[in-house]
Amino acid sequence: MRRRSRIAIFVAMLALAALIGWLWPRAPKPKAITVTGADGEVEEVASVEEVVKAYTESVPEARRLTFFGPFRSYAHLDQVEAHLQQAGYEPKLVRHDEPVPQGVPPSDMDILTTVDYRHLDQKGTLELQFFNDRLYQAEFEPDDEDVDAYREKFRAIWTQLHREQSGRSEYVNGPLRIASSLDLAVSQVGQALRTRPFVMWQDLRLIKQRDNWDQQFAEAAVH
């Protein structure tokens, strides 16, 4: 009889423990956030650490893009700045690094500008843009007196850029985008419109991530 009573008490305690566990408020599961990772792929993360990592990490060296010369996507600002200084240039840095609330990943935008930079033996202005300390865009604007000569040399190397009806040229291959206004700038229409001559290299993975940050966190960052 006692044995049966003990069993009944034990069963009752198990049932009570199960009921308490069911009624006891449970910690909610972290809400997954859809972000764009460093490689441009959409992924879901849950922790603040994972969100920050997604917007600040780089890809392996083998998956980075070469824009031209020594400039490769995902390169860090201090490395690029040091290279330019060692080459005898005096790059000027403009930072747009705003503090963000806790839980919001950074969105640091830095621009490194170098005047009298030489590319293809022609002088011009080099502008390098970084998103969270990773190079994502390089733009070169040849000086006015060097546009024709630069255009000929550029065309001889980047033959994949075809002139469109608008006079601008664009080439996209995977994450690499190259755009040019050189043909338009030297045309009569372009000269009448005072079109700025430039060539631009972009890594679309970081462009996509930058745009995704604007969609996901821009509103939260200003509160």
Overview of the molecule:
With 223 residues, the protein is of the alpha+beta class. It has one domain. It has helices spanning 2-23, 48-54, 77-86, 147-157, 182-186, 188-193, 204-221; strands at residues 33-36, 42-45, 66-68, 71-72, 92-96, 109-119, 122-131, 135-142, 169-173, 176-180, 199-203. Strands 5-6-7-8-11-10-9 form a seven-stranded antiparallel β-sheet. The longest helix has 22 residues, at 2-23. The model is unreliable at 22-30 (pLDDT under 50).
Short structural description:
Keywords: Membrane, Transmembrane, Transmembrane helix. With 223 residues, this protein is an alpha+beta fold.
General form: globular
Residue windows where pLDDT falls under 50 for at least 5 positions: 22-30
Oligomer: single chain
Radius of gyration: 27 Å
Domain tally: 1
- Strands side by side in the biggest sheet: 5-6-7-8-11-10-9
How would a textbook summarize the main sheet?
A: 7 strands, antiparallel
Distance from N terminus to C terminus (CA atoms, Å) equals: 68 Å
Task: List key phrases describing it.
single chain; 223 residues; alpha+beta; seven-stranded antiparallel β-sheet; two-stranded antiparallel sheet
SSE diagram, text form:
Layout: H1 2-23, E1 33-36, E2 42-45, H2 48-54, E3 66-68, E4 71-72, H3 77-86, E5 92-96, E6 109-119, E7 122-131, E8 135-142, H4 147-157, E9 169-173, E10 176-180, H5 182-186, H6 188-193, E11 199-203, H7 204-221
Antiparallel strand pairs: 1-2, 3-4, 5-6, 6-7, 7-8, 8-11, 9-10, 10-11
Transmembrane segments: 7-24
Keywords: Membrane, Transmembrane, Transmembrane helix
